[in-house]
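User: These chains co-purify. Model them together.
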Amino acid sequence: MPQEHQFRTRLRWLVDKAATSLAVTATILVILPLGAIFVYLIIKGASSLNVDFFTKIPAPVGEAGGGMANAIVGSVALLALASLIGVPIGIGGGIYLAEFGRGTKLANAIRFTADVLNGVPSIVMGLAAYALIVVPQHHFSAFAGGVALGIMMVPTICRTTEEMLLMVPHNVREAALGLGVPNWRAVLSITVKTASPGIITGCMLAFARVAGETAPLIFTALGNDFWSTSLKEPIAALPLQIWIYAQSPYDEWHRLAWAGALVLIVLIVLAVSLVRFVTSRGVLKGAS
Amino acid sequence: MPEIRISQPQSQPEVDPIPQQAPADAVPQEHSAIRRHLLGRGNSAIADGIFKVLMALCALSIFAIVVLIAAELIQRSQLSWHAFGFKFFYKTYIDPTTGLPSYWDPVNNYFSALPFVYGTLVSSFLSLLLAVPLAVGVAVFITEMCPEFLRAPLAFLTELLAAIPSIIYGLWAFFVLVPLLREYVNPVLIKGLGWTGLFDDTNPTGLGYFASGVILAVMILPIISSLTREVMTAVPHSQREAVLAMGATRWEMIRMGVLRNARVGIVGAIILGLGRALGETMAVTMVIGNTPQISRSLLATGSSMASVIANEFTEAVSDMHLSALIEIGLALFIVTIIVNATARLLVWAVTRGAPTTQH
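Assistant: Joint model of the two components:
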């Protein structure tokens, strides 16, 4: 009997160790591709980065050189338009959910819809923007691309804003209202301001997600080989340009695609960490 | 005046006129300084009402977006819906010249979404097969096993995986992963598992269902693992302590105390990952090969619902072709909404009522 008992204990000990090492292996396996992607991006991307990349427009097929200046500008324009649409609506929706609709059925339904909308594939958003804007206007335009990206930002920003506002203690609101401040003013300059670091972080995350989106732009913004800043014309965008170059059979363009990918990820990481840094210090430091 | 002073002998003449004049001057219109200030600003009830309505409109716009997307997609896919009906999703045509099954022919104007549905399902389930054990393993390691100082960096790294754009995954998969699979992994699979018929060596490019399944697995890992972590954190500590008090090892504690309690939420997280995999476009488009065919072999090239839209939409010329592509988009929209709704309900069922922060 004691023999068997000892065996069982030993077996359980072994299973425990095996499970632990499996979990460790899984973690390493997950971190591995992350490291591989960054290493490749840096090796392949950095070697093709030069001043031309940031100042020139794409070279015609067969010619060396050229850059993605127009795509960078185009991405900035598209993202500015998207933020103009997505940020106010998203924050407004979040304020409604947290300040006015708390616990109501309507708010629960909206929250649920926002979560579900968050999971709708970006290509479907592109199709919707195509049907909504490109078809009636009869041409591809930067405006349609911006709208598609803006719509994608709304649910994310709405939900993070709500979560951040819920963390603001109740007595802050009561203190404001007790001084006779009207409710709208109390919400905007007290509650939202207290939660602003978290809200800004949420906006930046939505921004970063949208910044790398290609699928909704393929048939809305379309891409453009030349300078364009008009919202009515097709416009180039960094992710779109990466896609076009990666599919091409030319080595020169593949190198540009890697360089573009490196620039894209550096821009995204920079934007996110800059905002994190700025909002984690000084007066803005609040609820989150 | 003197009589009044007599009645209040203590007060001094320079000070007391003020309390006296107050009742004398107290016409009803006169208010205190604060009240005057408040009244001077106008009535805030109107502003409050407008503010509330504006915010409600912002919130309701989320409904509007969903309805608008559905309405537009339904309207623009009418043409193909009327031409093919439900057969659009399962019909197999026979190519008259070759006698082989054919599904998608923009030239002869017949369209069937079957190969794309198949491609989406195969690559998504393959990715789940690869990602779920890894994701749960990572979640278990981060929440239950790893030393305190590693926890935050590891969580951050897995979240970072989620921040990489799909196009960059695609680029990496196309130039790094696919050659790797082609040279080292596929020959092993063909040799070892070729007898199942799932792996044959008719396709020398390395592109195909398997490659897209692998890259999808990398992409959906962070979402599954972070949600699993959330659900596992929501399991009360008393459950762990109870199991440990019975003399269980750490793994037994995790299996009985944590995983069993969190299983509904983990299923929810997996379904959410499935939703992400179903709609993933760019990375899949770059590695699946984009051929409208159905193959039993996982190493063959194919096409998915999202990839065919991304690939053919700008080149489609006929109205029927466009309409068919939009109908695929509509199907994708409906499926992902159902999948996401199910997943959210499951996750919500578990984390509801649980303490929001622990550890």
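Chain A touches chain B through 93 residues (CB under 8 Å).
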